Amino acid sequence: MLFFLAPAVLAEGLPDLGELAQVEVSPQLERRVGEAAMRDIRMHDSAYLEDAEIRDYLNRLGRRLTAQIDDWHGDFEFFVLKDATLNAFAMPGGYIGVHTGLILAAESESELASVLAHEISHVTQRHLARMVNKQGQAQLASMLAMAVAILAAHNNPDVAMGAAMAGQAAGIQSQLNYSRDFEREADRMGLQLLEKGGFDVRDMASFFERLQKFGRLYENGAPGYLRTHPLTTERIADMENRIQQRSHHQAVDSLGFVLVRAKLRAADGSPEAAITDFETLVKEHRSASEAAAHYGLARAYVRDKRYDDAGRELAQLRRLKLESPMVETLAAELSAAHADLPAAVRTLKAAAARYPQDRAITYALVDDLLADQRSSEAVPMIEAGVLAYPADPRMRGLQAKTYAAQGKLLAQHRAQAEVYALQGQLPAAIEQLQLAQKSPDGDFYLYSAVDARMRDLKAQYAEELARKKNGEDR
Ligand SMILES: [Zn+2]
Known about the structure:
About 75% of the residues lie in helices and about 5% in strands. By secondary structure, it is an all-alpha fold. Among the domains are: about 5-245, no CATH class; about 410-474. Strands 1-3-2 form a 3-stranded mixed beta sheet, sandwiched between helices. Strand 2 (about 90) and strand 3 form a beta hairpin. Helix 15 runs antiparallel to helix 16 (about 290-305) and helix 16 runs antiparallel to helix 17. About 45% of the residues are buried.
């Protein structure tokens, strides 16, 4: 299963069942549906993990794979859901979600990459569109039921059970059988991406085999991944067969992989339990990576507000001379916790020079500059951030906050309008532009730019209303 739609997607008047049953699903339509579902997840799914370091790591890993695809012009976006079950899924339009449980279950970076490669291949082979085009409306209805269940599961387990059962009745079983060919195809293509990306292809079979073993333990309550990607012994044998025929090599896990997993583990369970876990790792030198043990322990101490202890672990990390932006943000966080904002800013400025593309550093730097009443220094930082990531609502939100601190009203409302536009809230965006028009601090060019953007958003909104109306009329 690779289709995922949130209820609000339909409420917004995006393709309703009638519309989809009659037209071929184009890549543009897929992207539109995916974008709407993604917005919905960002705003309403409590499991959505708003952690720039983990998300950016996952996107870097994903890009190592997607860079190997020939003939593909679409974008991919990888995101993380805080959920202990082992699952990953592809939505229309190249949005790929990964549960934290799956990241923690992966024992190597190649294992994690193998699941991403499989999902990426579902997207590039356009399995969703092929399924919908072939099976039409009834099929889509059951997929929607399943999708509602997935979203609900993050917010309320009881609702999810009911919805999943309703979905079952609508014929999910036939869809799962149908997708076996797709599964094989995604395995085959995924393996190629994995090999070209420089990962260890053997880890694909080992990880899927382990997933299958987990599945047997759960019986009916199988982890999500197995329910949506039926994993048969035959499939694993097929994978192993292909791997035999390829040259393979050991791939070294990146520091990012090691630190991201430590960060997730440190956030899991109670702070006390996390501290005990990592203290044991540090003491017994049992951790394969000393860096992960000290970093995880520092993060666990931060949760318990034991900043001095965390500082001791940071000193250990410094001794290891690690090159990672994640160590710098940790250092800045500890300075800020000790109310030493100038030190936090110094650390982050040096880090921003070394890692100019790192969003977590930009977020933290702008936040700390604003907290330290240095908004004029924040302006060039946030402007560079918005230039690099124009579609990032959080970056736009920080931009609005920076201009607000500067007392620049027009610029503030313009930035806030973009936050709402990115969240799909067009009326709120238009309202912000009206406020920008009324702001006294513009000039001819600025007011013209606001007017132009206003026309643009109004046209988009009219189109959205028309789509909604059409959907209802049919
Ligand atoms: Zn699959």
